[in-house]
Amino acid sequence: MILQTTNLTRNFASFQALRSVDLSLQKGQIRGLLGPNGAGKTTALRMICGVLAPTQGTILIDGIDVSSNPVQAKRRIGYLPEGAPLPNELRAIDYLLYVGRMYGLNKTSRTLAIETWAERCDIARVLNQTIGTLSRGYTQRVGLAAALLHQPKLVVLDEPSTGLDPEQSVSFRAIVKEVASDAAVLYSSHNLAEVEATCDVVSILCQGRIVADGTFESLRTGKTSVSVEVSPHSIASKLSTSTRVSIDENWMRCECDNISGEDIAKIVSEEGGLIRLIQPVGESTEMTYLRLIQESQVHA
After folding, report:
1. CATH architecture assigned to 3-219
2. With the C-alpha atoms ordered 254, 256, 261, 262, is the resulting torsion angle positive or negative?
3. Domain residue extents for the chain
4. Is residue 93 within 8 Å of residue 134, measured between CB atoms?
5. From 235's CA, which of 12, 93, 223, 248 has a CA 20 to 30 Å away?
6. Tens digits of residue pLDDT in 213-233
7. Taking phi first (over 0 means left), then psi (-120 to 50 degrees means alpha), and beta for anything else, what does residue 275 get?
8. Which fold has domain 224-282?
């Protein structure tokens, strides 16, 4: 196991930011870390990276305890913080050389590592540019290359796709998946679609504790609703709907729960209305996430 946290807890005075969190990651796996603002994601990442000490619990990186052997544990971590806050005045190549020296790579190893990751992250053409002149996408990729120079066992990415356009996001996602062939990746983000497209499994934090863990598919309820477009608008009031959206002056789209398509058709027919679309709708990723957060708050 590359990452193993047990009973991870962090208190700030009387406030408990993280409560008995157990996380695990193995080589080849990408785990998404989701949760609303204030859920404890940043606190968890800072403890895993050795920036904050836990109030209780243990963190093992490739079997090494972060608390008792922080230097060796941190050598196994590659970290890309939110916003990729790199020094704008340095050329990309100078920054990568500096990071390589910081991790103790000799000149030959540094040169080889920079060549390798410059090619894999597609930044070779901008190595001689100052970081401040680079686009958001290139800055992110320079930051990722820096985090990977020393071949870390665990790669920690905090909001890595923020500010990337769709093309850059697709490219970045491909790099992350390639990286995961040699490492474990912990991917924290608010972007549900990006997490679902990138990650194998997901852990959802709320109020400092994990409220759900697994694949998005396994976390869905399996329940379906029925989406129907009816006319006139007055027909919608006869249906048991969770949402109603006016399409135009004649047609309204409704999402109906706990009723079959056959029963909807019967009601609309009896009321003298029309149907032009009727189809089952599964629980979306956003609906799954919101349901799990809401359920956790009710039972907190």
Report:
1. 3-Layer(aba) Sandwich (3.40)
2. negative
3. 3-219, 224-282
4. no
5. 223
6. 999 888 887 667 899 999 999
7. beta
8. Alpha-Beta Plaits (3.30.70)
Q: Which residues pair with 34 in a beta bridge?
A: 204
As a whole number of Å, the CA-based R_g of the chain is 24
pLDDT single digits (tens) 181-218? 989 999 999 888 899 999 999 999 999 999 999 998 88
Are 61 and 69 in contact by the 8 Å Cβ rule? The answer is no
Q: What is the pLDDT of residues 142-173, one digit of tens each?
A: 999 999 999 999 999 998 887 778 888 888 88
CB 20 within 8 A of CB 209: yes
Burial 69-82 (b: 16+ CB within 10 A, else e): eeeebbbbbbbbbe
What burial letters (b/e) apply to 18-30, b meaning 16+ CB within 10 Å? Answer: bbebebbbeeebb
The pLDDT of 13-40, averaged and rounded, is 94
Q: How far apart are CA 71 and CA 64, in angstroms?
A: 10
Three-state DSSP at 135 gives coil
Torsion of CA 117, 119, 124, 125, to 10 degrees: -150
DSSP state letters, 59-108: EEETTEETTTSHHHHHTTEEEE-TT----TTSBHHHHHHHHHHHTT--HH
What is the overall mean pLDDT for the chain? 91
Which token pair is 100? 């390589």
The Cα–Cα gap between 215 and 31 comes to 9
Q: Is 293 exposed, middle or buried (0-12, 13-18, 19+ CB in 10 A)?
A: buried
